[in-house]
Design a protein that fits this description.
123 residues, mainly beta, globular
């Protein structure tokens, strides 16, 4: 599985961005997906999870109510709509595929990763 993340950029606080993660492979709809981020000088942290069907989602408390994940299995793409952005959301955002079982909020349990897309939120 290969993943290509896009949609990052520079935005002012309070603004919005939509990230996309396009996946290769015909089995995309079989996989759960997640977004993680890594801010300057910080460890990679969980942002959001979506099940293979898109029915089940889980958000980090820091983004709950502001970010929304969705997926279009027909297009092999996962989206992350980010609203009310804050300077502390500044990070490289990574999408990842989760093939096997394990905690969905731990990056060690994801099996394939995209290259990351940079989001910068100015104050």
């Amino acid at each position: 599985v290969q993943l290509q993340a896009s949609g990052g950029g520079l935005v002012q606080a309070g603004g919005s961005l939509r990230l996309s993660c396009a996946a290769s492979g015909r089995t995309f709809s079989s996989y759960a997906m997640g977004w993680f981020r890594q801010g300057p000088g910080k460890e990679r942290e969980f942002v959001v999870y979506v099940s293979s069907s898109g029915v089940t989602t889980s958000y980090a408390d820091t983004v709950k109510g502001r970010f929304t994940i969705s997926r279009d299995n027909a297009k092999n793409t996962v989206y992350l709509q980010m609203n009310s952005l804050k300077p502390e959301d500044t990070a490289v955002y990574y999408c990842a595929v989760k093939v096997y079982s394990g905690p969905y909020n731990e990056f060690a349990h994801y099996d394939y990763w995209g290259q990351g897309t940079l989001v910068t939120v100015s104050s």
